[in-house]
Amino acid sequence: MTSRKPRVVLGVSAGIAAYKVCELLRRLTESGHDVRVVPTRDALRFVGEPTWAALSGNPVATEVWENVDEVPHVRLGQEADLVFVAPATANTLAKAAHGLADDLLTNTLLTARCPVVFAPAMHTEMWEHPATQANVATLRARGALVLEPASGRLTGKDTGKGRLPDPAELFEAARRVLARQETLAASGRPAEPGVSAEDEDGRFAGEGARAASGSGRWLDLAGRHVVISAGGTREPIDPVRFIGNRSSGLQGYALARTAIARGARVTLVAANVALPDPAGADVVPVGSAEEMRKAVIEASGAADAVVMAAAVADFRPADYRGSKIKKAPGAEPEPIHLIKNADILAELGQRRRPGQVIVGFAAETDDVLANGRDKLVRKGADLLVVNEVGADLTFGRPDNAAVILAAKGEPVEVPRGAKEALADVVWDLVSQRLE
């Protein structure tokens, strides 16, 4: 790998969410990326050229007629390591899907041979319109990563799906895509996105996309739906107290971000997590183990893979007290009788449909591998990620170490490193089994 800064073309189309992209640009430049901002002509009505130039440190152009001697309509796409369009309006998605090239951004999209990411933002009705959905399917089938928009407050009083994800999470998406390219380049595998097929209705033809893009390509999970659980469940004792654990959800969220960067549609079932939603994930918040069970079982019915990274309570109080348990003077507290919660991972193993890959996590404090091998067999999982846990290990930390046990195949030891690195190894193994 060379020491040059990664080159990012940041395309900005004409949506009110353009002001949020200034924060994405700041994060990219401050983390060492060389960013060229390419706004559409109308995007400058929302954020002016001086702002983009000042934040990026590079000149800004919208038309192919500017600096013609440098042939920018070809060079920008050819030399980029990543093209990231945010916000991507319905108009820009339509132009990109149909190969129109009437400004510098759309020309750049046609010449790019690097990963291309679109972060759509528009009103719900525009996002849900069949024309927009067909355009999104076309772009995905051609090897582009189109993130799902977030739900929330839109322009004016409207709310719904169509909101631009948080800029910090857009930055994480860009970072994960670039990291994926670096990993593929280091391994000697091709990293260019492939061109893949659509079905007769223009929908994403996942099988055709996977076959065309190749197992070594960056979107190896394209067309796949994966369900991930994260965080730690809480079992209420009374309106104030609960039985819980130390899980922060960081590993589950790393799995979600990494899967999205590899093209998957992600449903993230999150229990008591204080983390921003990953850009592009469908997040289902839950509290207790039973709530998590219902959400995971419902979401996993048609999923290609399920990864149970959450720390699910094994037990819950047999009786919930409707009012706060008082401390009586001079009296010992009444014992809390516990009963078992359902074993979600084992149930998934029993319910699995043909071809579905099931991954579990096992947090152990002693006899780590022996206990892990026993759980792998009992739970009926394809893979089991075994962690040694403790007060200063794994929970709440940005790093992790694990051994991944397989029902078929040799164990894989993952040395301590960023949780995203462990997530990538998990998805490598899942991808192999899906293929």
From TrEMBL:
Name the pathway it acts in: Cofactor biosynthesis; coenzyme A biosynthesis; CoA from (R)-pantothenate: step 2/5; Cofactor biosynthesis; coenzyme A biosynthesis; CoA from (R)-pantothenate: step 3/5
Q: Record keywords: Metal-binding included?
A: yes
Tell me if Protein biosynthesis is a UniProt keyword of this record.
no
**Gene Ontology CC, one term:** phosphopantothenoylcysteine decarboxylase complex
What is the free-text note on the cofactor?
A: Binds 1 FMN per subunit.
Which InterPro entries does the protein's record reference? CoaB-like_sf, CoaBC, DNA/pantothenate-metab_flavo_C, Flavin_trans-like, Flavoprotein
Stated name of the protein: Coenzyme A biosynthesis bifunctional protein CoaBC
State the organism named in the record. Actinomadura barringtoniae
User: Taxonomically, what lineage is the organism?
Assistant: Bacteria, Bacillati, Actinomycetota, Actinomycetes, Streptosporangiales
